Amino acid sequence: MRFCLFAMRLHLPGKPVLLLSIVTLAVPAALSLLTSCEFSWGSKKALWPDLSPITLDSKVQTILTLLGEPPSPHAIETDGENLAAAGRELFHAGRASHPETGLPGRRLSEYFYCTDCHNTHREVPDPARLGDPASRLAFIDGRDLDLPPGPSLAGAVNRSTWFTGDRFAERVATPEEIGRARSSLREAIRLCAQAGASGRQPELWEIEALLAFLWTREWTLADLGVTSIELATWKRRALEPAETESVAGEIRARFAHATPSTSGDPGPLAESHNSDPENGRRVWTRSCQHCHGAEGTSEYYFGEEEGTWEELASRFHSTGDRSIYSLIRDGTGPGEDKKAFMARYPVERLSDSQIEDLRAFVEQRADGG
User: Fold this and answer.
1) In a 3-state reduction of DSSP, which class is residue 59?
2) CA distances from 268 to 111, 137, 317 (A)
């Protein structure tokens, strides 16, 4: 302060009091401004999502919630661990004990298990392309998995709609039931157990248990093909509040929000199609044998018995509902006296060319190849 007054006497005679007053007022104002900025900065920082704990093994909903998205409409409100264990048992064994009382439950269906039509594995290299049958078949064949007719339930909790384009649902349920199932995963579970599996009405705790199990099969960032560099970039960008919505959108773009189910034409392709019997062997092993093999649920076993291959080859040339083309594309559907049925394969899970490859493989075996 002495230096300031001395300078004022030297350069500004007669005005030391005026400048001293300015300095006296300016310093508190500056301090107040800095304090205000620091408070504002601190408040903004408190609103920024902390993505530091996120790794490539983190679940998608976890990071979306941190980025400010609302909770999932099918979140589990109670302790999910016991429920998930019961849901796993329901999915694989068809029944489970109540997670709280321990009382044994009844079979959901006397005709099917969930595993007859669905698996819970990642089936495709890119979860944003669930409708690519060629990459799916190659992917599961390399991992020794099965390809049942129903969509995989991996990432089902991350989707926003279900039963999309499913013509089979229209044969076993009312439009109102299908509408509810398309907009609610809980209703989709109910419809699948009751109408899709020719089963009973599931109890509320069974629906919650299956839902809890599906949450254990949620997509991770690694499943979506996210790299360490991409994750680090998202973490830096998320420090800017204006970027959080954009980062969340980029994550959502990495997976499909519905499983397409398009009906195919139940007929052969043109004779000019260049069939691949080896690819047909993959279809036979991964799809046909899932139900018709030694451990399959179907009463029709396709093994090495004499005449099997010749019979199947002839069915490719049959017409109507005896044709294998028709059986694959339309299934059989449940009847009054026969609740067990063959589910159909949509084109997204088995393409026309893959069916022709299957025909080539069967005919090759029928000819002794």
Assistant:
1) strand
2) 31, 20, 9
Number of other CB atoms surrounding residue 215 within 10 Å: 20
pLDDT of residue 47: 58
Angle at 114 (CA atoms; ends 113, 118), nearest 5 degrees: 135
Residue 240 domain-assigned (yes or no) = no
First to last CA, the chain: 103
Contacts of 48 (CB under 8 A, 6+ apart): 238, 239, 241
The answer as to whether 66 is a domain residue is no
Which phi and psi (to 5°) does residue 176 adopt?
-65, -40
Radius of gyration of the chain (CA): 31
Mean pLDDT by 10 residues, the chain (369 residues): 43 47 48 43 53 95 94 84 93 95 94 95 95 95 95 96 78 86 96 92 96 97 97 94 94 96 85 87 96 88 86 91 91 79 91 95 90
Helix, strand, coil percent content, the chain, rounded in steps of 5: 50, 0, 50
**Looking at the domain assignment, is residue 105 inside a domain?**
no
Residue 321 domain flag? yes
CA distances from 9 to 18, 21, 23, 26, 294 (A): 12, 15, 15, 20, 106
Number of structural domains found in the chain: 1
Q: Which domain holds residue 143?
A: 119-152+264-369
